[in-house]
Every structure is written in structure tokens, then in C-alpha cells.
């Protein structure tokens, strides 16, 4: 008689683990639970066409006046799949002696780790893959949607007031669908009271979340993704942010091979020699903030997100981008730094305030060929110059 070996049952393990990772990862990520999910990517890159120019209507002067023409334009926004991977080695003796399903116990923690990395990269740009768009904080800062608390903060006014967080995104035509805050923000919200001492932000024992801002649910991540040194609170229209998971998510239970230290290349584990197995999970996804043109933001310079800074704002560095035609500066050219947009001034200059990292800069203008450059922001101000060649 023969037995079912580990190798024979490996496909069952993989299918079960893959299904669990696919289901649990969006639950472990605050961003993925709030943003809009697109169909799975079938390749490394997915293209999302967005409105870039809206048509205009004009009054006609007199019975024989000429009717003016207008046009509508589109731009392409790309989602590029970045890879996130982890290997969890387990001695076979531990598997045999364990009174619980260790693989089943490890899988949710792997999904949680993936969710933490996704949130930290998209919200704050922590370890952001170079091919991804800039983080939501950078998008909001460039649009002027960063609110400073000041020396004696009135949190109700900072959030709900005429120039507060919600008003910052409403001026561009967006409504908040969710808020993400540090755990320390809970105490600040509990301290906001009416003139007669009644708390303004009340918990709802029947609701899915305990706090809400102007009717939108509020979340306090516990996966370690939120950086209170950069923001206390982020609000926005999360339906404007999109993400897609690459279809080739792979989960393997390895019992052969070696595991090396990524830095030294030293062998840490020899699975066959040390009677070990290893759970390897590779997760790939992409995201984007398309930010289409609207009647309230025709040049796409706004942002559907805003954030409340800490008492001491995080340090950023200025990137100055100069755009010319080879000799003269170009005014009103569009400059994009990893998806963050700005228009050049009369002197052909656009400014960005960025965290350290590698960025892709693109300049474009109607009638000219676009130009791109790569810049690295460290701990000092940086400048770049792009020259656009006129189209023939």
C-alpha cells in the first residue's frame, strides 16, 4: 500500500493558501478596503484612460455670429504591478509536533504583512516601488491640501471648518468617503465637546465603525502602517483611487533549495539538509490616482485627499523643474513627478516638495514632444531642466 506524500498533496496546500491570501489581504489593508478595485491585471501594466480636457460651450453673437469649436481630450494613467514577497521557513519536526495547523496560522499573518506594506507605501511612500505613483500625502501636499494644526489647535475647526480638511477636497468637487487616522487621534476626537460639554464624536455601537467624519467612516489602522510623524489624519474620496491585483499570485511550499541572506548572500537555511519547509508568497499589485478633469478642476491640479499635519511638519526637500524649448522658458507646461502634477510659471518653473527617494519627471505641452528625466531626492534641494522639442 502507498501513502499520500507531501509532494502529492502540495497542490492542495497551495490552492488553499492562495485563496486565503487573496481573500485576507484586502481585509488587512485599510487602503484596499476603501479604494476601488479594478479587474485583475493580465500583464505587468494596465492602462486607465482619464479625461484630460473638457469641451467648452460659447455664446453666439448675433444672428450670423460664428460658432466656436472646442474639443475633449484624454490622458493615459498606468497601473504598474510591483512585487511583494516573503518566505517563512518552518522545521518539519515543528510541523509534525504542532497541535495546530501552522500553515493555517502563518497565512493570515502573511496577508497582514502584505497589507501593512501596501498601506505604508501608498499612504506615506514608505519603501515605495520606483514604478509606482507618488503617495497620497505627496499628492495632497502638492495640491495645497495639507492643514497645519497651529499652536492651539481647534480640531473641530481643523476638520470640519471653512478651511479645514473636508473643505480642502470639496473645493475640487470631491466628497469624503473615508478617513484614516493614527491611534493618537482617537483621544483628540474624544476631547472635542460642545459648549455644554457633550462629546461631538460619539461611538455608534450598531455601526461598522466607531467613529465617522461628516458621515464617512473613520479607521484607525493597527497594522503599523500609519506614520504619525507625517500626518495625524487623512481624509479623502477613496473611490478616486484604484488598484488591481496581478493574476499570477504564487504560493509555494518548498522543501528543497537554500535560503540566502539578501545582503551577504550567505546561506541561512538548507531546506533539504535541515529537514525544513518554507512557505513562499509572491504578491503583485498596482495602484493609481487617475484624477480626471472635472468642471471644478479642469487642469487636474487638485487632489481628492487632504491631511492634518503633526505639530512639527515632516521635512521635505524642494525639487525645482525648469521647462524650456531649448532657449526660452515655456509657461503653462504640465510637469508630472510620479503622477503628481503642476503647471510651470511664466519663467518655466514648477516646484514640488518631496520626501527622499527616486522619481520620474515628465514635462509635456501641446505642440511639443514630451521629455522625461530621473531625479533622486536626498537631503537637499534638487533641480532639473527639461527641454521640449517642437512638433513638426
Question: Which key terms come to mind for this protein?
Answer:
single chain, alpha+beta, Major capsid protein gp5 fold, hypothetical protein PF0899 fold, Immunoglobulin-like, 3 domains, 6-stranded mixed sheet, 22 strands, disordered N terminus
What does this structure look like?
By secondary structure, this protein is an alpha+beta fold. It folds into three domains: about 140 residues, Major capsid protein gp5 fold (2-Layer Sandwich), CATH 3.30.2400.20; about 110 residues, hypothetical protein PF0899 fold; about 70 residues, Sandwich (Immunoglobulin-like). It contains eight helices and 22 strands. A six-stranded mixed beta sheet has the order 5-15-9-6-8-7. Helix 1 runs parallel beside helix 4. The radius of gyration is 25 Å and the shape is globular.
Strands, helices and their partners?
Blueprint: H1 6-28, H2 30-34, E1 36-37, E2 45-53, E3 73-80, E4 82-91, H3 92-97, H4 102-124, H5 136-142, E5 146-147, H6 155-160, H7 165-170, E6 178-181, H8 184-190, E7 211-213, E8 216-219, E9 233-236, E10 242-245, E11 250-254, E12 258-260, E13 267-270, E14 276-288, E15 305-308, E16 317-324, E17 334-337, E18 340-343, E19 349-354, E20 357-364, E21 371-377, E22 382-387
Parallel strand pairs: 1-10, 5-15, 6-8, 16-22
Antiparallel strand pairs: 2-3, 4-14, 6-9, 7-8, 9-15, 10-14, 11-14, 12-13, 16-19, 17-18, 17-20, 20-21
Helix pairs in contact: 1-4
Amino acid at each position: 500500500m502507498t501513502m499520500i506524500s507531501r509532494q502529492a498533496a502540495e497542490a492542495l496546500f497551495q490552492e488553499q493558501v492562495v485563496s486565503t491570501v487573496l481573500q485576507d489581504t484586502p481585509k488587512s489593508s485599510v487602503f484596499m478596503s476603501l479604494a476601488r478595485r479594478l479587474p485583475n491585471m493580465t500583464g505587468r501594466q494596465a492602462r486607465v484612460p482619464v479625461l484630460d480636457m473638457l469641451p467648452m460651450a460659447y455664446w453666439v453673437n448675433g444672428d450670423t455670429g460664428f460658432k466656436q469649436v472646442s474639443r475633449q481630450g484624454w490622458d493615459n494613467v498606468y497601473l504598474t504591478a510591483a512585487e511583494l514577497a516573503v518566505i517563512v521557513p518552518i522545521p518539519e519536526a515543528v510541523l509534525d509536533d504542532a497541535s495546530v495547523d501552522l500553515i493555517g496560522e502563518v497565512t493570515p499573518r502573511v496577508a497582514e504583512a502584505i497589507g501593512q506594506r501596501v498601506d505604508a507605501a501608498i499612504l506615506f511612500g514608505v519603501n515605495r516601488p520606483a514604478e509606482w505613483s507618488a503617495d497620497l500625502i505627496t499628492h495632497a501636499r502638492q495640491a495645497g491640501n495639507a492643514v497645519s494644526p497651529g499652536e492651539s489647535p481647534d480640531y473641530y475647526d481643523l476638520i470640519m471648518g471653512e478651511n479645514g480638511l473636508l473643505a480642502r477636497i470639496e473645493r475640487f468637487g470631491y466628497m469624503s468617503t473615508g478617513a484614516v487616522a493614527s491611534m493618537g487621534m482617537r483621544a483628540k476626537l474624544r476631547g472635542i465637546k460642545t459648549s455644554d460639554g457633550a462629546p461631538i464624536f460619539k461611538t455608534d455601537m450598531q455601526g461598522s465603525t466607531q467613529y465617522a467624519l461628516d458621515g464617512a467612516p473613520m479607521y484607525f489602522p493597527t497594522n503599523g502602517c500609519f506614520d504619525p510623524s507625517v500626518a495625524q489624519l487623512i481624509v479623502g474620496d477613496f473611490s478616486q483611487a484604484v488598484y488591481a491585483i496581478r493574476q499570477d499570485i504564487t504560493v509555494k511550499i518548498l522543501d528543497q533549495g537554500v535560503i540566502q541572506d539578501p545582503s551577504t548572500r550567505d546561506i541561512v537555511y538548507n531546506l533539504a539538509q535541515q529537514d525544513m519547509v518554507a512557505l513562499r508568497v509572491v504578491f503583485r499589485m498596482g495602484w493609481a490616482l487617475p484624477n480626471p478633469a472635472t468642471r471644478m478642476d479642469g487642469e487636474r491640479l487638485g487632489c481628492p485627499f487632504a491631511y492634518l499635519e503633526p505639530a512639527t511638519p515632516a521635512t521635505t526637500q524642494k525639487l525645482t523643474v525648469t521647462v524650456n524649448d531649448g532657449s526660452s522658458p515655456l509657461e503653462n507646461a504640465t510637469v508630472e513627478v510620479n503622477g503628481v502634477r503642476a503647471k510651470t510659471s511664466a519663467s518655466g518653473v514648477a516646484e514640488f516638495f518631496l520626501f527622499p527617494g527616486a522619481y520620474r519627471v515628465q514635462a509635456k505641452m501641446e505642440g511639443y514632444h514630451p521629455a522625461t528625466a530621473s531625479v533622486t531626492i536626498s537631503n537637499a534641494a534638487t533641480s532639473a531642466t527639461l527641454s521640449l522639442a517642437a512638433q513638426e
